[in-house]
Amino acid sequence: MPGVFLSGEDNFEYALRKFKKQVEKAGILSELKKRQHYEKPGVRRRKKEAAARKRLMKKLRKLRLI
């Protein structure tokens, strides 16, 4: 769980930047978006397969252009 401890000389903007970086690194926002609504297992599987196809096509395009 992200958290920021401030010393006497740290200002709020610095602490906020540090906290946002920790939240992004922990993947909390992406997890929150994923849990916003329920997806049926079949829908989840199709999305996962589509993402894999997209990654593969991107990899193939990159290899052909080089």
Automatic annotation (TrEMBL):
Gene Ontology biological process terms in this record: translation
Signal peptide as annotated in the record: none
Keywords: Ribonucleoprotein, Ribosomal protein
GO CC annotation: ribonucleoprotein complex; ribosome
Superkingdom classification of source: Bacteria
Pfam families: Ribosomal_S21 (PF01165)
Entry-linked InterPro entries: Ribosomal_bS21 (IPR001911), Ribosomal_bS21_sf (IPR038380)
KW Ribosomal protein (keyword) present: yes
One term of GO molecular function: structural constituent of ribosome
Protein family per UniProt: Belongs to the bacterial ribosomal protein bS21 family.
Name of this chain's protein: Small ribosomal subunit protein bS21
Record organism: Desulfonauticus submarinus
Encoding gene, per UniProt annotation: rpsU
